[in-house]
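Quick one - inputs below.
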Amino acid sequence: MNESFLAGLLESNDIVVLKKSMRPYFLRLTPAPDWYFDLITKEEGGEGCLDIDLAPPFLQNFFVDALQLPRESEGAQISSGVWIQESQEEGECYFEAKSTVHGGTLVLIIKKLGPDFVRRHQQIQVARERELVNEKLERLVRQRTLEVRQREEEIILRLLAASGAKDDETSAHVRRIGLYCAEVAKSLGWSHEEIDNIRLAAPMHDIGKIGIPDHILLKPGRLTEDEWAIMRTHPELGAEMLGNTNIPVLQMASSISLYHHERYDGSGYPLGIGGEQIPLAARIVAIADVYDALVHERVYKQAVPEKTVLDMMQAQVGKHFDPVVFQTFLSCIDQIRRICSANQDDRHNHLLMA
Amino acid sequence: MKQRKICMLGTSSVGKTSLVRRFVQSVFSEKYHTTLGVKVDKKIVKSDGDPVCLMLWDIEGEDRFYRIKQNYLRGLAGYLLVADGTRPVSLDAAIRLKSNMASAFRDTPHFLVLNKSDLHDQWCLQAADIKKIASAGFTVISTSAKTGENVEQVFTKLVELIN
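Output:
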C-alpha cells in the first residue's frame, strides 16, 4: 500500500476498513459512517458483517478480483476503480475500493471520494467539453476544406472541358487517367492529400494543347518536322498556364504537364532528362496515359487488346517507363481494370468525381 | 428473478448515461455531465412474460482520459455500443471498442446504437462510415435519449436476444 494512500486513510473519516472472514462475509474493523449504510443496506450476518452477496453489484464484481489476491502477496494492492452510488440525501456519491493483503489477511478498504475527486471530475468535465468543441471545429475545417476542394475540382473540370473541346480526348479518358494515377500513388504509399492532388492534376497533363494551332492539332495526316516541333511545345505551354501558383494541385499539374513526355532513358522531350530527374508524378502519368490510350479506340485507331498493350509497355520498361512505377502499375492492374470499366465515356460533366 | 448484466460502452459524450436515465427514469437533461467511473442502475422488464432484472452498467466513456477495465465486463449478458451520429469519431471508437473486447464477448448479444437521432440533420456519417458499420457486422439502431425514440425498444430487443 503506498504511503499517500495510508496517510489518506488515517486522516479521513470517509473510509471503512474490513477484513475477510468466513465466506460470505467481510468484517468491519472501523466505525461505519452514515454513507456506509447507503451502500450496504444492512449487516445481515450481525453487526459489522458485510455479506458479499448483498453488496452493491459493482462491489460484488470487485470481490471476484479481490478474493483472487494471493494471501502470500503481502502489501499487494488492487483497486476497483471509481463507482457512483445514488444517495437520497446527497445525490450522486463517488466511491473507490481497494483490496490488499496485510499479515496474511485480505483487507478491503472502501473510500468515499471527497473534494480532491470533485476537483478531478471538474477538470475532466472541462477537458472533455473542450475536446467536443475542438472536434466540432476540426469537422468544420474539414468541411470547408472539402468545399474548397470541390470548387477546385469544378474549375479544373471546366478547364478540361474547354481544352477537350479542341481535340479528341474524351472526358472519360481524362477522368480515368486521374483515377489510375491515384491508384498507383496509393500503392506507392503517398499521403491522402497527394493522392487527391494527382487524381486532379493528372487529367491536366495535355492542357497545353489548347495553345497549339488547330491546323496542327486537328490535322488528319502526318505532321511535318516543323509541325512536330510546334506540337512538342505543348508540355511547356501547359506548365506555363498552370505554373506560378501556390496551389499544390496546380503546382503538381504544371510539373506533370512539363515532364509527362520525358522518358526514363532521357530520350523524351522537352528537356531530355531521365530517371529520377523526372518527377515521380510525371512518371506515373506517362504510364497511365499510354495504357489508356492504347486499350481504347480512337477515331484514328482501333483498341489494342490489353495483354498486347501490357507486353508492349513491358518492352518499354527502362526506356520509356520507370521500372518501379510500371511494376506498381501492374500490381494494381485489377483496380485499374475496374476503374476502366466503370468510367467509360458518359458525356456527363462529372469528370473527376471518384 | 433472473438478473442480466448489460453494459453501456462507447467513447465519452455520446449519451450512454442519458440513454440509461431515459430508460430507467424517463428523464432527459440537455446539460452535459461527464460520467467518471461506473454507475449501476437496475430496471425490471418483462421478457416472455417473466420479469427480468436488468443491471445496467453505465461505464465511463473510453477516450484519452480513460480506458475501460475488462473486468467490468465480467458476467456480461449483452451490451450496447453507443455512438453519436453527429460525431464520426465516436463511430470509430465504437468499432475499436468492439474489436478490443476479449474474445469471450465477441458473440455476446449487442447493438450499435447511433444516438441523437433528434439531431439527424446534423449527422455527418459518410458512405465510408456506413461501409465501416457494415463490415464490422453491427446491427444498428438509431435512438434519441432526448425524445425517447427507440430507447425502450433497443433495451427490449437486447433482452430478447439475451433470453
